[in-house]
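In this section we walk through a basic example: taking a raw amino acid sequence and producing a predicted 3D structure, encoded as discrete structure tokens. The instruction is simple. Fold the sequence below.
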Amino acid sequence: MHRVVALCLEDLVAFDLTAPAQAFGLAHDEDGTPLYGFSTCSPGGAQVRTLSGFTVGPEGDLQALEAAGTVVVPACLAVLDPPPGEVVEALRAAAERGARLLSVCTGAFALAHSGLLDGRRATTHWAFAAELARRFPAVDVDAAALYVDEGKVMTSAGLSAGIDLCLHAIRKDFGVAVGERVARQMVAAPHREGGQAQFIERPPLRAVGSTDSLEPTRRWAAERLDQPLDVAAMARHAGVSPRTFARRFREETGTTPLQWLLSQRVLEARRLLEESELPVEAIAWRVGFGTAASLRDHFRRATATTPTAYRRSFQPAA
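The resulting token sequence is shown next.
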């Protein structure tokens, strides 16, 4: 079982603690066996005040981080200034030991104060991104991203983006099927790309009861990935011009139709690699990439590995 320990500091954002606890706690294999153990800690094991007005009683002190496979650092106001020296030392020790570090919202400041974001891309809530960049010039701050995966260090924007990052981590650990099961139970989007905009400028709200959302077209396209879909085809299904479709698509999702389509095809390829014995050439055809070479190219860009290596990594779990 993979052990996840959340580091709780003063003025904690409760949602940024409970959302990872829920996501990792819901991850089970097909037999119902839990895949993660989730616990909490704080300096000295002391109670921690939340911004919601109640306190949290962590289960352990900083020694709990010594056995963590993943350390979660939720948002809190206290980390805008340097955390206690013992916290910095514990985070550095966890990183040196090989633990994965995952921050939500301003939790990124704790990692930055510990020097763990130097030379890496990172993100945080858009309202704090400029301050993160100003205080830590060695950090490549991406103010727009929902989350950033730098391997052993992952950072996310605020609130719901923390759920996206946890689902991303679960998919990396145990595959798309497990991640989708958790997303369904949390009534969350099963997959949002980390590079998707965290803050989307919205047009004026449409009338209550409006039925002009493009969700039906996205669902229609996701069921036809083996077909030669493009913006024109999706626009025809939606009954609007390609230009209008592209504009409204970005307004609703924060990404372009073609970027969304590529991510859906890679996601389906991952599922088939995990759950089927189909050869790579057949999977390439079924998800709309046409050739194995095209699948390998897009797959490597999205996952930093090859379809064959990805399948091999999930064969023991299967």
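Looking at the output, two observations stand out. Residues 2-186 form a domain with the Rossmann fold fold (CATH 3.40.50.880). The CA atoms of residues 176 and 267 lie 8 Å apart. In the next section we compare this with other chains.
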